[in-house]
Each structure stands twice: as structure tokens, then as C-alpha cells.
């Protein structure tokens, strides 16, 4: 069995592969490590680029676009390795990026998953929005990171360079034990994209496993390269966040959290309306309608998740009210929440 399989899910990303795959190939060369491009039925020249320009990279071809979540489920069904890395196609890795991750996971068998430090490819001194130095979640289900609170991204000055337990590891560079991934059912394919890695990490954590950020490994992420800000992205974020909460919240928290979230979602919709952003305004309502429609099919999933949970409070799930602290109290950096 291989030690690590670095799996890049691609859809119509030929130019991204040309730009970023060279660093992955150059800095992932070691015995027992493979690089795989799993293609979600691209209609551009992606497969030809990989075959012709990166002959050492294995390819997996899907018959249609399964999205991020189910795309990875389909791809990882064709992988056998102790560890897998779910790596976005717009990530530039650095020399020896895998070694700290492998060493820590080998030494800590209770840790199911981890992530490297994510810095911005466009502004390299700064953290990157999608994962920064590890993910956390507030009491009402709003995700944030060491190094990124809502829209405020910090410069990396080494302030978060300790290995730290986190709530969720970014899907842009998720290093995970393949058996743990399969044990909890992988990513939720019905999410399609967005929030699916947080949902996965929640299941891992509730079943007694640990997740950490290992900032001794650094990668650079472009971010928002595959699905730019749009009503579609807003829809997926709002709908999937509600599905994630319904699937995983302990019973004693469910009613309060879902009530508060309904109010806050309507506040967010109103803000779009004030900006005359009709597309995103409608997307919030469509997301809530879609959640209500899908909720019955998740009742059995919720029961299963709660029945398998061995803990419902763990590092990374904080008592903070992120929105209030950010806008009313001016707390804009992670250290102000510690």
C-alpha cells in the first residue's frame, strides 16, 4: 500500500494544472507517494495536458461532473494509501510540504486529519481565506479560522505557528487517513460543494477523533478559482450550512441554533437587498427553501450521527457569537477570541 496519495480533483482546469501541478510533482517525490488527477468529465484539454505534460501523474476519469464532494468520493474509491491529500487544483506547494504532516500523523494515531498553513498565492505574506491556520466554528455554525475572521484576513507573522487542535481542516489541502475517511462515510455528495469538509470533520470529531493544523507545512492557495462569488455560491453556502447543522447538532442545541440562524439568514438577505444585489438576495431564500425540502431525507442521517457520537463538545467549537463580536465589538483577529 502507498503511504500518501495526493489527489487533485479537476474540472475544466487545464490552465490551473499547467500553473500549479509542477510544484506538486516536484515537491511530492518520495517512495510511496503518488500524485493523482481525478477529472470530473472536463470538456477542455485537462486530460490531454496531464497525459502529455505530466506523464508521471495518474489520472482517474469520471463519467460526469460529480461536484467537489461526490467527485472526491468517487476518486478515493479508486485509491489505496494510508493517507490521502484532497488538494485543490489552484494550490502551489512548497519543498518538503508533506514531511511534517506525515511525521505528525505517524506519531499521533488518534489524529484523523490535519492541514498545512494556507497562505495567499496572490498576497503571499497573508493567510488565505479558505483555511488560513486551521478552522473553528462559533455557537451558531459560522466558520472562521486562525488568521481569518469573516472577511478580515491577517498577515502571517508567525503568530499561529503552533500545532493546534482545530474544528475543521480546509478542503483545499486536507490530509486525512483514508480508513477514517471511509469509516465516517466520506464527504456528503448531496452538498455538491461548500461546507462539505466541515461536515466531514464534525463527524470525525464527534466520533472521538482529532484534527489539527500543522503550520510547519505551508502551501499557497489562489482561492475562489473554481467557483467565484455568485448567487450559486451563496445558495450552496447557506443551504449546506443549514444541512450541516441539522445533521450534527446535539439535540439540546438544535432548536435554539436553528431559530437564531433563521433570523440571521434573513438579515443577510436584507443586506443583499439594500445593495440591490437581487441574485444573492434570492439565493438566500432559495437556500432556505431547499433546506426545508431536503430536511426529511436527512432525518435518518441525523439519527445515525447522534447515535455514533461519543462526544458533542470538543476543541474548535467555541461559545462565541462571531457576527456580534465582529460587527458590534470590533473583534477582527483570531487572537481577540482566545
Helical proportion? 25-40%
- H/E element sequence: EHEHEHEEHEEEEEEEHHEHHHHH
Cα-based radius of gyration, to the nearest Å: 19 Å
Instruction: Please report the number of helical segments.
Output: 11
What structural class should be given to the helix and strand makeup? alpha/beta
Q: What percent strand?
A: 15-25%
Distance linking N and C termini: 41 Å
Give a count of the beta strands, DSSP E runs of length 2 or more: 13
Describe this structure in words.
- The protein is α/β, with parallel strands linked by helices.
- It is 39% helix and 20% strand.
- It is built from eleven helices and 13 strands.
- The strands form three sheets. Strands 1, 2, 3, 4, 5, 6, 11, 12 and 13 form a nine-stranded mixed beta sheet that branches. Strands 7-8 form a two-stranded antiparallel sheet.
- β9 and β10 form a beta hairpin.
- α1 (14-26) runs parallel beside α2, α6 (196-206) packs parallel to α7 (231-248) and α8 packs antiparallel against α9 (278-294).
- It is globular and about 50 Å long.
- The termini are far apart.
- The model has no long low-confidence stretch (mean pLDDT 95).
Topology summary:
Layout: E1 2-10, H1 14-26, E2 33-39, H2 46-53, E3 58-61, H3 67-76, E4 81-87, E5 91-93, H4 98-107, E6 111-120, E7 135-137, E8 143-145, E9 148-149, E10 152-153, E11 164-165, E12 173-177, H5 178-183, H6 196-206, E13 210-221, H7 231-248, H8 251-274, H9 278-294, H10 299-308, H11 322-327
Parallel strand pairs: 1-2, 1-4, 2-3, 6-13
Antiparallel strand pairs: 4-12, 5-13, 6-12, 7-8, 9-10, 11-13
Helix pairs in contact: 1-2, 6-7, 7-8, 7-9, 8-9
Amino acid at each position: 500500500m502507498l503511504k500518501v496519495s495526493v489527489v487533485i480533483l479537476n474540472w475544466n482546469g487545464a490552465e490551473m494544472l499547467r500553473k500549479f501541478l509542477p510544484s506538486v510533482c516536484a515537491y511530492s517525490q518520495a517512495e510511496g507517494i503518488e500524485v493523482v488527477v481525478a477529472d470530473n468529465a472536463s470538456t477542455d484539454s485537462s486530460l490531454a495536458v496531464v497525459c502529455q505534460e505530466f506523464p508521471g501523474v495518474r489520472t482517474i476519469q469520471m463519467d460526469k461532473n460529480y461536484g467537489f464532494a461526490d467527485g472526491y468520493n468517487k476518486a478515493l474509491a479508486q485509491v489505496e494509501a494510508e493517507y490521502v491529500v484532497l488538494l485543490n487544483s489552484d494550490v502551489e506547494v512548497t519543498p518538503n510540504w508533506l514531511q511534517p504532516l506525515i511525521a505528525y500523523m505517524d506519531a499521533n494515531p488518534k489524529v484523523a486529519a490535519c492541514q498545512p498553513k494556507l497562505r495567499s498565492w496572490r498576497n503571499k505574506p497573508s493567510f488565505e481565506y479558505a483555511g488560513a491556520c486551521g478552522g473553528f466554528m462559533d455557537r451558531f455554525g459560522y466558520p472562521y479560522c486562525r488568521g481569518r475572521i469573516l472577511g478580515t484576513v491577517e498577515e502571517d507573522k508567525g503568530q499561529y505557528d503552533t500545532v493546534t487542535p482545530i474544528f475543521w481542516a480546509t478542503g483545499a489541502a486536507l490530509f486525512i487517513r483514508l480508513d477514517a475517511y471511509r469509516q465516517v462515510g466520506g464527504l456528503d455528495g448531496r452538498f455538491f460543494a461548500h461546507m462539505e469538509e466541515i461536515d466531514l470533520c464534525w463527524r470525525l470529531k464527534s466520533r472521538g477523533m482529532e484534527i489539527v493544523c500543522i503550520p510547519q507545512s505551508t502551501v499557497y492557495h489562489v482561492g475562489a478559482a473554481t467557483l467565484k462569488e455568485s448567487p450559486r455560491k451563496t445558495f450552496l453556502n447557506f443551504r449546506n450550512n443549514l444541512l450541516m447543522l441539522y445533521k450534527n447538532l446535539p439535540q439540546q442545541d438544535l432548536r435554539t441554533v436553528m431559530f437564531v440562524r433563521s433570523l440571521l439568514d434573513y438579515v443577510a438577505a436584507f443586506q443583499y437587498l439594500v445593495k440591490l444585489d437581487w441574485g444573492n438576495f434570492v439565493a438566500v431564500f432559495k437556500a432556505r427553501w431547499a433546506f426545508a425540502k431536503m430536511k426529511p431525507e436527512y432525518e435518518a442521517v441525523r439519527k445515525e450521527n447522534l447515535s455514533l457520537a461519543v462526544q458533542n463538545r470538543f476543541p474548535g467549537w467555541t461559545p462565541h457569537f462571531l457576527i456580534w463580536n465582529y460587527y458590534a465589538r470590533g473583534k477582527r483577529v483570531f487572537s481577540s477570541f482566545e
